[in-house]
Task: structure prediction
Amino acid sequence: MPGGGAKELIREGARNMAKQLTREASLLRKGAAPTSAWAFLNGEFVPIADAKISVMTHAFNYGTGIFEGIRAYWNPQHEQLYVLHLHDHFERFRQSARIMRITLPYSVDQLCDVTLEVLRRSSYHEDSYVRPIAYKASPLIGVRLHDLEDGLTIFAVPQGKYIETERGISCCVSSWRRTDDNAIPARGKITGSYVNAALAKSDAHEAGYEEAIVLDQQGHVSEGSAMNLFLARNGVLVTPPITDNILEGITRRSLIQMARDELRVEVVERTIDRTELYVADEIFLCGTGAQISPVAEIDHRTIGDGKVGGLTQQLSRLYFAAVRGESPKYRDWLTPVYGRAKAAA
Result:
């Protein structure tokens, strides 16, 4: 082969490799797992590329699965990755499984051990997000929950901010209503039910907003597209009750504890009307993925002075210190990944 042709092939190969690396970097920013990641799938640890299910899997066709979102925070000073509320998340996972008639083959403690091993094998030294999924695994067509096999997978991806946490975001009240407990239970993290969140989120985004706020069937404020909501009025922190079709948020519960114990702020769980959003002093959204996201504007109305409120700032400082292992009082919220015996799952 002439020398010029060989050089062109080398250049073409380099260009293709650069394109592939750019594509992989783009996917990682959007939430994909790196090729070095591992997963736990139906009793085995496998490289993420080998963690596959059939296109006929019941949960893929009908949304008959449950999941959790679990944060792990890297502390470079401690050289440690801390998993936040690991046991609590799997307790809620077990409750969701009960709603969906899914049998989990492991105890909560065993699921925790498997999660730690997935993170160790993936060798993450950065903030990460763990996704356990239990699902109806039978490769069958037909809508039901009975007479089906159950499957389980756990994997993790690097993840920083889900939405903005340092400045106020813009929101709209969505035309989509929150699913009702007698239709698709909001207290369960059911895979199919998150179509509701996706519809609200994409409509908000395409209308120029960063997030959506959904109302329940009675027109009361429920939550964000996939996160809980708090507002502050006259020094009191208010959040919708669990009976207004919200997810029973673990981050929500932690912030209620911190507001009461650390800031001595009154926290009230009660029904919130839509217009109360417009006259609030502060509003923020919260969740495992969202963390604490202050809201600056709703439906073209400025919240407070349009800046991150004082109470939101105080809670954020307390929360992020706790999740990174810098607050001894809340160390029991955390499970360290490294420096422990490997799981024997």
